[in-house]
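Quick one, probably user error.
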């Protein structure tokens, strides 16, 4: 895919997890694959990982981004916080320290007469006590 679409030749190097984590910790890579899943329903679940002192495997750093993220964390107004996150995302989009190339989806099969099924739960946790039969 990379050769065909971007004319880039990539040599994959599979590693056991211990070696992989060691190399990531030492920033001993040119390009690496990572996955991240949000564990709470707020933008910082993804944006935090690009802060200079966060879980930042690529060691990307931008003082303006860090300042915006610190500001967002102390802003109580939801709309203002979203505006700050948007500014931070613009920095990410401009500098592109990571390439989102894959997004996981989940398919769920349920009866049409089942109610109370949350579609906004980022952890995909389903509690049967919250569900009910509608017909």
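Nope, works fine. Designed sequence:
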């Amino acid at each position: 895919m990379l050769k065909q679409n971007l004319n880039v030749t990539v040599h994959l190097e599979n590693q056991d997890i211990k070696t992989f984590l060691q190399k990531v910790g030492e920033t001993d890579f040119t390009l690496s694959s990572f996955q991240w899943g949000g564990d709470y329903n707020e933008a910082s679940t993804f944006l935090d990982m690009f802060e200079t002192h966060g879980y930042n495997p690529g060691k990307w750093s931008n003082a303006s981004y860090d300042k915006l993220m610190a500001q967002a964390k102390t802003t109580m107004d939801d709309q203002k916080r979203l505006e700050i996150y948007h500014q931070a995302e613009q920095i990410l989009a401009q500098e592109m320290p990571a390439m989102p190339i894959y997004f996981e989806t989940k398919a769920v099969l349920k009866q049409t007469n089942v109610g109370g099924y949350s579609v906004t739960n980022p952890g995909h946790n389903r509690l049967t006590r919250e569900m009910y039969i509608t017909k």
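The chain has five helices and two strands.
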